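Entry type: protein chain
Record version: 2
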Amino acid sequence: MAKIWANSGDSHLVEPQDLFTANLPADLADRMPRAVKDPDGEWETVFVDGESFRRKLPKIEQVMATMARPEDAVDDPIIRAPGANDPTLRLKDLDEEGIWAEVIYPSLGIWAFNIKDPLLLREGVRVLNDWALDFQNHSSRYICCASVPLLDVNDAVAEIERAASCGFHAGFLPVRPPFGRPPWQDPEWDPMWAAFAETGLVIGFHIGTEPHKPDERTGVYHRGRGGAVLNYVETTYGGQRAVCQLIACGALDRHPDLRVLVSEGGATWGPFIADRMDEAYRQHGAAVRPKLSKLPSRYLYEQVYASFQHDRSAVAAAAAMGWKNVLWGSDYPHYEGTFGHTQKVLHELFDDVSPDLRQRITVGAFEELFPHVPPAPEGEPREPTP
């Protein structure tokens, strides 16, 4: 089959184990997120700011069973791609898979949103971002997301401005603010939305990144029968709520150049949320504050983007429902992603799709968000762009 090239709206970095110990004073480094796997590989303990919790890991045999090329599996049930934490080898993985450019989120760094100490968070995020920037500098195909310290909005604004000045093109936010902080629609966050708009950084919400209470930090919302499926579905809702909050509070109205990307949460929800918000705005208009310059759906269709992996319905959303800001994403190198069978997934999704629609979802919407990225190739792989 002819190779389909696609940009990825959802990928991840793999931070080195010594990232914080090598770059922070010992008293701070010891409180930054770290994960320690049990010798048998079945469980790991995650440590964050003096707290810890345990989570069960998938078995490597289960991971290999999902792969088209099990010989490429690495001995890690979460990170399964050989080039995951090597910026040069990663390009070889991407070329073989047919992935051109990537929006790249943290992995271990996601847990930083559970930190309670503003000083620790500010210093730790700076280390995370300096390392991510160095990774990004290896190739123009990498769009690493800058983490943002959210315990103090002034710290958030300062780091957004620093990140933009250093060369970042996107900033990573959890779908819900840290505990003790107001929700995204609160006026306290207005300076942060202004900073994103003024710097041009795309806001990247990655699903499943809510700061969790200690008994929820494994991502478990439901237990018992059906729990695995229910928990996976539950993670998608956070991104939808965050988008609704930014639209309803007028953040996208005040900043028409602001762009938002929701990664790994599917894309079919967009038209439904747009209709639901319009209905609320019309039918409950007497209670609506603030008034917007246009219907809520317009902001979603014009300023909000979403990435999906396997969802057949996401292609239909773009084809039949009018939401053109739909991106594909690989979730490289996480085990539930497409590494090892990316071309199979892309052909199943796009072989029966018109060339214009395929181009829009695989590369076009991505290029709209990040116009500085070199265009994806066509046909056979070419040498990686340095």
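Comment: The chain has one domain: 6-29+87-369.
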